[in-house]
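User: Hello, can you help with two protein structures?

Assistant: Certainly.
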Amino acid sequence: MAPLSIPDTPNDITSQWLTEALCSTERFRNVVVTSLRIEPIAELTCAGQLARLHLSSNQPQSTLPSTLIVKLHAPDEPLRAKTRPFTPDKCEILFYQQLARETHLRTPHCYYSAINVADGKYVRILEDLSPAKVGDQIRGSTAEETALALRAIAGFHAHWWQSEKLAGIDWLVGSSTDSVSVTRWVLDQYRNAFPIFVNKAGVLLTDAAKAFGKQLPEKLTDKSQFGKPPRTLVHGDFRLENTFFGASLGKQSFAVIDWQDISRGEGVWDVAWFIGGCLQVTSERQVAERYLLKIYHETLKTNGVSGYTFDMCWEDYRLAILRYFVQAVLMVASLNPENDRENRLARAVAERFIAAITDLHLADG
């Protein structure tokens, strides 16, 4: 059978195409999709395209769900070209194929995937996690939701903590890619994005924070601060819009999607993005920050991690906030100011990270 073409948009998916995609897998060898309705998903900020597929088939619903999620490449070829050197879409496909069963963390099942490395186009057919609810980055998370997320990600980190298996996963960022080149590329993007971030942040950005932001690339070129043990698997974009909450998800009542940025690294990188970028209000983070980090640290210990003190964790967290201030700047700069939702998201993320670097005295000196 010839390889299936990769649809350009969700609306290009037909019942016949979906039937052939599902039949190419062992699980749904004889499925026939008899009807299909496509529902765009607009509530998630994603570089690609997302839609929910409502379908009927000749299979019992217990075998093939009545809804699936399709994830497609970004329609903008220049945007795909920017990220192509880091193969994020290939990384996500390989995560589902090789690592998902070992995550110790609820993730959607991937029923079908394909990628064209030459032009960056891809398609993934994923489990629909509804009725669980996706996190809302604009609203932000409560301390209780953040604690739930940190317990879950700590269990994931603990499973891979200093694991010998990490060295054998040669497609992970930081192993098959020159980390110095990656850092240089990211910081070049940051330098271009920071003036846009300053404009969007407006009065939220103090003079001290603005000066800090300008000097940050020089601070981050000190490689001794990053890439040091202990190492584990890191999600890389652990924030509310990549998380789901709900009893339907099982014991943890929590799930994580979007594994394009998975890498080897320090576990607190994920923690810093969630605490720094997701807690509802800065006053709540100021009160709960150390408490939440202790929940993460205690869960690591409960899951067998030793030799990593809370003081070490706290200092690693402070450094990780620097790393994710960079990611926050890139994210805010890329959002469309003409889109009201994306504009509100940009301001929420900017406000939280500006407050974080201020309260942690990272902008001092």
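That covers the first. Now for the second protein you mentioned:
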Amino acid sequence: MTPTLRASIIVIGDEILGGFVVDTNSGWLAGRFHAEGVPLDRVTTVPDDATAIDEALRAELARTRPRLVVTSGGIGSTPDDLTLAAVAASLGRPTTVQPEIDARITRALEWTAARGIAVTPAHERSMRRMALVPQGAYLLAGANGVVPGVALDVDGGANEHAGATVVILPGVPSELRAIFDGGVAPALVAGRGVPQHVAEISHDYPESTLNPVLDRIVAEYPDVSCGSYPGRECVIRLKGDRDRVVAAMRLVEDYLGELALQPGSTAMRDRWRAYWARDTQPGGS
């Protein structure tokens, strides 16, 4: 039986690190991996810099395998789009022209010229950079435009016990999602994980009030992932095998029931509500 696939994400872009663009790709990918039961170990964000990309890629490929390493961003036609060349260099591979991507670029340039817009040699060279992929990379289905999505296997690929696959995706969210759903998920992710049951319960007590029951869950159900997230209503989220999660959640429900019967519970809830209400008032801090 092939071991469970694990995943890593490398987000690439100065615009992310500069605070000009909010990264939504890693959150979306995390949700897709979770739905397939594929553990996501790391999300790393690096600048448009070949050395930084190399460092991040080497670190992720050194983790437990089989592994899928997904990069997001940096594969367009502008000078700061370095991902394809940087991944090739990191893996010690030359770049080579991918015929289908090159043909898409030709059609795009012809369309541009047909509308009376001059296509200079410099413009064409910059566009054709998108067709230069690491040797051995294969095209992924799902792309709606010229910006490609490609994958390349390391040590036999993610279908091998000790292998990994590097998936290089564009940073534009709509393109990334189309390629992931059309080309990555069916071929590399589906059926490779163990989906986990997730249960949530909310309460309006201070988060720390439930520490005793959360500590009990950690001790008695070490195989269940337990998280507590504060807010106007705190959320407790349990994840793992269905039967174990159901049993652990029953402890939380019983604890909340007992807590509600205590004399000071109403005052405690009111104080917590007032604390969070500060952030909803004008000038609140």
